[in-house]
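Researcher: For the annotation table, I need structure tokens for FAD-dependent oxidoreductase. Please keep the output clean. Sequence:
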Amino acid sequence: MPAPFSDPIWQKPQSAAAPQALVGGKPVDVVIIGGGIMGLSTALHAARFGFAVQVLEAGEIGQGASGLNGGQVIPGLKYDPEWLLEHFGAERGEILVNFAASTADAVFELIRDEKLAVPFVRNGWIQAAHTETALKAAANRDWQWRNRGADVRLLSQTEIAALTGAQGYLGGWLDRRAGVIDPLAYTSELARIASAAGVKIAEHQKATRLGKSVGLWRISTEGGAELRAKAVILATNAYTGDLLPGLAETIVPLHSFQIATAPLPADLAAGILPEGQAVSDSRRILVYYRKSADGRLVLGGRGRMALPTSEGDWAHLERALLRLYPALSGVGIEKRWFGRVAMTPDHLPHIHEPEQGLMAVVGCQGRGVGLMTALGERIAGYLASGDARQLPFPVSPIRPIPFHVFRQVGVAATIAWYRTLDAFER
């Protein structure tokens, strides 16, 4: 694709691991298909448990959504503690609440402990409310998390205006456990430390066939290689194909588009996100934004379902930018890019284990950086111990979405309708 339509601002650090050739031969303990955050986190921790691990990445490390996302590290799930306790019961619900609360810590502690070359700011995430209904929801979320000792607080209209510099918010909610990173640097550094731990990482190795013979899984690649492994983890998320029948039909892939301004002039930069928080708003088709390490404003949101064909496909984000920050009308948009994300019908991550030694994880729901980092460690712990209590989410059967072939058409229509409704709530 031409550079203007896939031109992120994120950077691989100079310390990025060199690509490794795929070496067949004797069986390995674990083959992980997918070299994003989930796959690399699982690989790192599995290697440190003593497993021989091979990662297969169809493209290059960081080429998918793991390296192209907005770099917001947000703890929690779409659902708050009371909902999780009600729907999963006291025991499982409590496990999920505690796990959800820990996911941002997993990222920032890894960056600190491993001395990763990853630009970051950990001053929190703001959920910005543009209606009274959204403000009431923020107050309920604040009450639930404050009761559990989380470092959170409600923001008044004056406070959110000071923290964001944006127009149109009635208030909001600040979660100081959150922060922002360079996602490409983070994914690249995960690959580097995984490689240092003994993980073999092969790029441009798309897995095309998966089967089992004589107690071992056999994985064939597009290049004609065949690997054998005791266990296989599918960490392909929105890039899931037909390797495991029915899995791709359990998710709806969506495109998340992003833009980045030129570096902001000093007089404007001082009043825009002065403390460096990330922001997501409360609209039906939300936008999210943050500053980058080099002083740009980065803003993202849902894009068209088809691949972009011109700069006009990012126009809805440029309109959102100027709605929030009219003073940026003279600042150019220098970068535009997109990545593919996956939505599950219940807005929760799904863990599947259709056969012993075969697992798949799908569904990030906008919190993938922290969620998949933390979940990778748990999956590795489960491989090492066989103890299902390592897994915060219950293992579920693969249930394809009915009429999946029509689902994306419906989602596209819903997005268009929601954009219309949002326009009336300016």
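Researcher: And a one-line annotation?
Model: The longest strand covers residues 333-343.
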